[in-house]
From TrEMBL:
<protein>
    <recommendedName>
        <fullName>DNA ligase</fullName>
        <ecNumber>6.5.1.2</ecNumber>
    </recommendedName>
</protein>
<feature type="active site" description="N6-AMP-lysine intermediate">
    <location>
        <position position="122"/>
    </location>
</feature>
<comment type="similarity">
    <text>Belongs to the NAD-dependent DNA ligase family. LigA subfamily.</text>
</comment>
<dbReference type="GO" id="GO:0006260">
    <property type="term" value="P:DNA replication"/>
</dbReference>
<feature type="domain" description="BRCT">
    <location>
        <begin position="614"/>
        <end position="687"/>
    </location>
</feature>
<dbReference type="GO" id="GO:0003911">
    <property type="term" value="F:DNA ligase (NAD+) activity"/>
</dbReference>
<feature type="binding site">
    <location>
        <position position="417"/>
    </location>
    <ligand>
        <name>Zn(2+)</name>
    </ligand>
</feature>
<dbReference type="Pfam" id="PF00533">
    <property type="entry name" value="BRCT"/>
</dbReference>
<feature type="binding site">
    <location>
        <begin position="35"/>
        <end position="39"/>
    </location>
    <ligand>
        <name>NAD(+)</name>
    </ligand>
</feature>
<keyword id="KW-0235">DNA replication</keyword>
<feature type="binding site">
    <location>
        <begin position="84"/>
        <end position="85"/>
    </location>
    <ligand>
        <name>NAD(+)</name>
    </ligand>
</feature>
<comment type="function">
    <text>DNA ligase that catalyzes the formation of phosphodiester linkages between 5'-phosphoryl and 3'-hydroxyl groups in double-stranded DNA using NAD as a coenzyme and as the energy source for the reaction. It is essential for DNA replication and repair of damaged DNA.</text>
</comment>
<dbReference type="Pfam" id="PF12826">
    <property type="entry name" value="HHH_2"/>
</dbReference>
<keyword id="KW-0234">DNA repair</keyword>
<keyword id="KW-0436">Ligase</keyword>
<dbReference type="InterPro" id="IPR018239">
    <property type="entry name" value="DNA_ligase_AS"/>
</dbReference>
<keyword id="KW-0227">DNA damage</keyword>
Length: 695
């Protein structure tokens, strides 16, 4: 890979690469490379400019605005995570959301119907966390990955509508959440000015807001017309209000802008009318909104409802219908994923869909291609809804256009892997065709490695898709354990194009940092089918330590029935996942990969979930089974409470069960408990136990 290119060629290549990455990042919100790789390319470009000033030209991206998150911004952990929202698109889906909440709270249908909500336009901007200590603004951070954001305090301070001091009622510590955005009219003005000055124009107001906030020089941010609407609470040392509408009043009193269209809605049944009204007004607003957020007004109910995954049970976003556009299909490419799934991807003539340039869309699978009868060369209708990958809705028939009715030939879905050539099988009842090459298939191996280093797994800064592919081709990294031996190739690495001693050092130290890893990230990083973040966390919590988990998995591999049953009984795991784990551990290569990793890593025990709840509660570590119907709360709420206190809830009674809570009409599980001599308690006793102090 060592280069024989002239400096001018190198410079042009780098410029093109950066422009493409910028476009992917700003135009599509789909970064193609890791931050470190991007920063490295930019540094390299500046270095070339210093050495060869004559190369500098107008398109120079290093002089453009709107750069990627920069290491110059410090990283800050949010006290309370910044989560996302579930979506609904229609009335029946909203009704389901409300009845799920009602069921969780054990409300009657009538009380469910009378739940009171607050509606807020969903601003399409950039979410921000504002920290105030003793009433003084002390920090502003971007959302980042939800747990850790970038410190943009100095930039956010320049926003004219940000109160720097809260007045009366300010808690000692409070995090306030909101959205930074740019008004459409100001966005067009800004773009016109940028164009006049020969500077970068932004694809949409959201990108303009993001680019303006992420300036290294806060004087530039100060000149940008940024607005701020606040709508949420993170961590607070004291409760602020009893209802969300009172909370919004308090925010207004402190001097914040709260969106004037926010409104309390006393009955769920009035919500569709509000949605219709706002959908009509949407185009007349001077800021982009992509839906409406509905939040249950009563904060004590919010607290009881809590979260499922990363989304609250007490709020949802009703999204407006997706944006559509028409374009030509240029090609269909079959991509091979980490688990061997063959996914058809449509390559399109680039087209603007609601402000974003789209050139790729998913075609899901073989059946979808047949259903649409889509062929290369066709004119297709495509849709983009929120953050979802754009999809093709239909083929525009030649009768509807002036085009000649000649079409390409029918697309034949391959029954062999396009990468390794192995047979691609489609199991009956499944929509997906999978390459059977396993780890002999290069595509699967590389995708697995990419998954291994990804953000929610090992999160290795500087090892993005491109570097993994390059290091794989060079033979430096063939399996995950090789990553931790990459320092053996240090001398070769520094000689590679695009790498230098500094960036190699950075990469190697980023790798060193990950030699210690939490068990859940480790399990997730292995990329086992159906083991996403949530299931990895469930497994980690259940088994506690790497050794326990590995022993159990080995037992599984020896077809030990009891282990299989224990595993299937973990709430949320079930037999399909147990089968996937069994299959994974049946493959000797996978065991070798794990042993190799284990010999190099320190895998941290899973901390009990009560680490964040009451310390050492009586129920911590116990295994409970609920049976029969509870009168004071739903089964889901009971389970959520038990888990908050550090207990595990399983479906079946076994020797490992600590006790069984008997609701009304308890049946076979009560009998099983008796047979096994396991303690049973009543609902009242359960409530006392759950409410008891720590011990
Ligand atoms: S509430 C736990 N309210 O939408 C509650 N979010 O899809 C989380 N957003 O990251 C957010 N307007 O950036 C909430 N009125 C509003 C909002 C809003 C815009 C954004 C926010 C969040 C994303 C969630």
């Amino acid at each position: 890979m060592s280069s024989k290119l002239t400096p001018a060629e190198l410079y042009n290549n780098l410029q093109e690469k950066i422009a493409r990455w910028d476009e992917a990042y700003h135009g599509h919100d789909e970064p193609e490379v890791s931050d470190a790789e991007y920063d490295h390319a930019r540094l390299e470009l500046s270095r070339l400019e210093r050495l060869h000033p004559e190369l500098k030209n107008q398109n120079n991206p290093s002089e453009r605005v709107g750069a990627k998150p920069n290491p110059a911004f410090g990283k800050v952990k949010h006290r309370a995570p910044m989560l996302s929202l579930g979506n609904v698109f229609a009335e029946d889906e909203f009704e389901q959301f409300v009845s799920r909440a009602g069921n969780f709270l054990g409300l009657s249908p009538e009380d469910t119907e009378n739940l009171c909500f607050v509606a807020e336009p969903k601003i399409d901007g950039l979410s921000i966390n504002l920290t105030y200590e003793n009433g003084q603004f002390t920090a502003g951070t971007t959302r980042g990955d939800g747990l850790v954001g970038e410190d943009v305090t100095n930039n956010i301070r320049t926003l004219k509508t940000l109160p720097l001091h809260l007045g009366k009622n300010a808690p000692e510590f409070i995090e306030i959440r909101g959205e930074v955005f740019m008004e459409k009219s100001r966005f067009f003005e800004l773009n016109a000015e940028q164009e006049k000055r020969g500077e970068k124009v932004f694809a949409n107001p959201r990108n303009a807001a993001a680019g303006s906030l992420r300036q290294l020089d806060s004087n530039i941010t100060a000149k940008r017309p940024l607005g701020l609407f606040v709508y949420g609470l993170g961590h607070s040392s004291h409760p602020v209000a009893k209802t969300h509408s009172e909370f919004l009043d308090q925010l207004r009193e402190w001097g914040f802008d709260v969106n004037p269209l926010s409104q309390r809605i006393d009955h769920a049944r009035d919500i569709p009318a509000y949605v219709e009204k706002l959908a009509r007004e949407r185009s007349g607003l001077d800021y982009d909104i992509d839906g409406i957020v509905f939040k249950i007004n009563d904060i004590s109910l919010q607290n009881r409802l809590g979260f499922v995954g990363r989304a609250p049970r007490w709020a949802t976003a009703w999204k407006f219908p997706a944006e559509q556009a028409i374009t030509h299909l240029k090609d269909i490419e079959i991509q091979v994923g980490r688990t061997g799934a063959l996914t058809p991807v449509a390559h399109l003539e680039p087209v603007n869909v609601g402000g974003v340039i789209v050139s790729r869309a998913t075609l899901h699978n073989e059946d979808e291609i047949n259903r649409l009868d889509v062929r290369v060369g066709d004119l297709v209708r495509l849709q983009r809804a929120g953050d979802v990958i754009p999809q093709i809705l239909s083929v525009i028939s030649p009768d509807d256009t002036n085009e000649l009715p000649s079409r390409g030939s029918k697309f034949i879905f391959p029954d062999h892997c396009p990468v390794c050539g192995a047979y691609a099988e489609r199991i009956q009842g499944e929509a997906v065709r999978r390459c059977t090459g396993g780890l002999t298939c290069e595509a699967q191996t590389v995708e697995r490695l990419i998954h291994f280093v990804s953000r929610n797994a090992f999160d290795i800064d500087g090892l993005g898709q491109r570097s993994i592919r390059a290091f794989y081709d060079l033979g430096f990294i063939k399996q995950p354990g090789d990553i931790f031996r990459l320092s053996n190739h240090k001398e070769e690495l520094v000689k590679l194009e695009g790498w230098g001693p500094q960036s190699v050092d950075n990469l190697l130290s980023a790798i060193e940092e990950r030699r210690t890893i939490p068990l859940s990230r480790f399990i997730y990083g292995l990329g086992i089918r159906r083991i996403g973040e949530r299931n990895a966390a469930l497994l980690a919590r259940h088994y506690g330590s790497f050794e326990n988990w590995l022993n159990a998995m080995r037992a599984l591999n020896n077809d030990e029935k009891e282990e299989y049953e224990t595993l299937s009984a973990i709430m949320g795991i079930g037999p399909a996942i147990a089968d996937e784990l069994t299959a994974f551990f049946h493959e000797p290569h996978n065991q070798t990969v794990i042993d190799d990793l284990a010999s190099q890593l320190t895998i941290e025990d899973a901390s009990s979930p009560i680490a964040s709840g009451p310390e050492g509660h009586k129920l911590a570590g116990e295994t409970l089974v609920f049976t029969g119907s509870l009168t004071t709360m739903s089964r889901s709420e009971a389970k959520a409470i038990a888990e908050r206190l550090g207990a595990q809830v399983t479906e079946t009674v076994s020797k490992k069960t600590s006790f069984v809570i008997l609701g009304e009409k308890a049946g076979s599980k009560a009998k099983k408990a008796q047979e096994l001599g396991i303690r049973t308690i009543s609902e009242d006793e359960w409530i006392k136990l759950a409410n008891s102090e720590t011990q």
